[in-house]
Amino acid sequence: MGEAILQTAGVTKTFGGLNAVDAVDFTLAPGELVAVIGPNGAGKTTFVNLLSGALRPDTGAVMFEGRDISRLPVHARARLGITRSFQIASIFPGLTVMENVALAAQAHAGHSFRFWGEVAHEAPLRRKAHAQLAELGLADCADRQAAQLSHGEKRLLEIAMALVTAPRVLLLDEPMAGLGIAEARRMIDFIAALKGRFTILLVEHDMEAVFALADRVFVLASGARVADGLPDEVRADARVQLAYLGAEDEDL
Amino acid sequence: MHLLFVEQILNGLQLGIILFLMAAGLTLTFGIMNLVNLAHGSLFMLGAYMGVTFQLLTGSFVLGFMFAGVATFLIGLVMERLVIRHLYARSHLDQVMCTVGLVYVFNEATRMAFGPEPLHAPVPALLSGTVELLPGAPYPAYRLAMIVAGLAIGGLLYGLIARTRTGMLIRAGASNRVMTSVLGVNIGTIYAVVFGLGAALAGLAGFIAAPILTVYPGMGDNVLILALVVLVVGGMGSVKGAFVAALLVGVIDTIGRAYLKDVMGLMLSPVAANTVAPALASMLIYILMAVVLFFRPEGLVPAAGMRRPEAPSEPASDAPLGAGLLARWRVPAIGLLGGGFLLLPLVAGLADSPFWVDMGVRVIIFAIAALSLDLILGQTGLVSFGHALYLGVGAYVVGILADKGVESGVVQWPLAMAVSAALAAALSMVALRTSGTFFIMITLAFAQMMFYGASSLYDYGGDDGMHLSVRSTFGGLVDLYDATQFYYLALALLVVLAGLNIRLARSRFGMVLKGIRVNERRMQAVGFSTFRYKLVACAISAAVCGLAGAMLANAAEFVGPQFMDWTRSAELMIMVVAGGLATPLGAVVGALAYLGLEKYLSDLTIHWRLAFGVLLILLVFVGRGGLGALFAPAPGGETVPAHKGSFRWARPFFRPRA
Ligand SMILES: Nc1ncnc2c1ncn2[C@@H]1O[C@H](COP(=O)(O)OP(=O)(O)OP(=O)(O)O)[C@@H](O)[C@H]1O
Ligand SMILES: [Mg+2]
Q1: Scanning B409, B431, B519, B521, which has its CA 20 to 30 A from the CA of B359?
Q2: pLDDT tens digit string along B242-296?
Q3: What are phi and psi of A39, to 5 degrees?
Q4: Transmembrane stretches, by residue range (chain A) (predicted)?
């Protein structure tokens, strides 16, 4: 697996006796879109946290381009290009939409120990932010308070904040959660447009979206890997049906 | 020597037991209700006063003991019902402000009821003798009884929590609030009982300790701070941790005070040991706390089952009462304020009240200090409760330099800033490893540590502080002995600093601070090393506060540990909040309002602190957003018409003339 950009080897995270993530081996090749699925409480978010650095693994290692990054904190991994969205949309509610994205861009445009110049006048940051907002169809809301956006727009904004940093790996934790049908469609189309341009790990419950988008599907149940393969293989896998699809039948 | 050592260990245990009884209530209310209750020390005091009074009345120690427990339990219930209950969902800053208000109220009410003189608490006759634990080592029976009684109460508490149905509910409430209330248990009642229980424990501790402490208004405050240290060391929300940490803190503190001098005498010259040891001994437990935190930011025994929510709950954003009410007078008000400051010496001269200029200097100095606190509190959202520390450090740098013959302000003032910044950087390395409530308590404890450190600088006045031998000189450019010159120098500095503050808020750095305040986790996910930015913000803030301290030393011609007393830190915090967070003008308005009100009320009555405490509580509940909010432009940039909403009645007063 020499060409893997992000890889884990036996990562385990335990919360007071519960193995939330249990000895998981995982690889993500450049340009690939891998969907991680699993029932509620399977450990998907915990796994994303291990990749993004919000949590440190108890055992096992996380590798980025062959380098062990298990002990790097969140911001250092973000600077390497591992960027994420959160299951519960996480933005800066008190700032304008433009400021939200410009602030994300600022994190990747030199240091911010600058105390004098007005950040609002930094043309490159604004230009970048503006282009990103336009790409997501949020250009019209640029000057609105982020808190006033609709739920779907907040999700898009969060993705804009991730994309503006030109990530090497994009970790999306249930970007469709809580969206209406139309908004979810828009999001699926959007992620489809990102496919190929970015390396993406997508955690998702919406099976339609998963099988439409994913190059590969990775199934977690009770923290452990149950299956990892092409969408059709996984769909046919009896263990997956038992561990996951069967239990969630009514959701399909 | 050995016998003495045993005695010291016992003394340490006895202090530890008292601290445990205090910390148990604190840790329960924190673990279950997520409440920072700084008025817990007042319950300690009330227990002492009430119990001792009843004991003197009835002549029975046992009745006094029971009365102390029951009375503080009831006071706790009432307090919970009236005030505390409304704080559970509030920010930690609101909780701090409001409970500090309660401390003012309780302390002053006690002074009114019992007078300022200490109350003498008799030791019961039965326990007045000594016990010979080891042959030749008599130990006061009462102190021994304290340890036994404390252990017994602790045992009862354990039994209550581990064995009874109420205890089960309490534990359930601590590990999963939502679940417990879903199960149909009346969570409100549990909260009230827990709070009352904590209050009773504090009250009993106060009563038990009364015979060996001085019973005076405010006696609980120092014990409270020690209990907070215990809480942080033990791990918040953990009763077991509180027990272990309380004994540890009690013993280390006592042993340190008794033996550090001897131990250091082995390594240092006697003179050096004599100067350093007392300071170090009084700082020992704070150093212990820092070390524990550095290696275990969650404390020695982290409470189980406290799960961090994935997303920070968005703060309730109801607009403060009357926000934007005076928005149309924003510009005139700023003009008036500026004009007033500019012309004050002139007016004072005309009115023949030179005192006003001194008062003005004071206001400006505190405005600068408040401005510096606002950088971390208002702009970054770090609730630092020890900011007066740097006021003191700045003042001491000037005082010590002047004492050593360095009188030039050009040397003194920058050095005051540099030392403050360096100290802040060092302390923040530890403090910033924590967040939320831990951060509040650690900053408070560090300030207290330096307070005791400064109190032991016997060469520089010790407890009493020292007179500043000569005001800073500025090579003949400015003469600080001329009140007007001093005033205008201070004003110029304030204007420059406020300007820099506005610039900074709009810069890259300011934007990062704002992002940290709003959503720190997002900032990290986006790639900011928030720790470094917070560290620099703390250092800058401390430097500016150190400058204010340097000026304060000159204005007061005095330097003393009082400058860094925790009430000073609270004052600065009140100024910032009262004026309005994250607005440079807020700090100025807040300082003016605070000092003005203090002056006005204290001229009116010696019990002004009572009124002040009430105002503080009202500020938290009614005046969110501070005075600045009254003048703030309404969100969206438009000013709210004065006749909207609940202020309809005021319409005739505010309608502009056609
Ligand atoms: N900080 C934590 N402390 C204790 N337990 C945790 C913590 N975070 C997660 N868990 C537990 O670990 C398990 C996995 O949780 P996780 O959030 O990773 O699941 P998930 O697959 O993302 O579920 P969902 O589909 O509901 O988002 C759950 O049982 C959860 O309760
Ligand atoms: Mg999840």
Answers
A1: B409
A2: 999 999 999 999 998 888 888 888 887 887 787 778 888 888 999 898 888 888 8
A3: -65, 170
A4: none
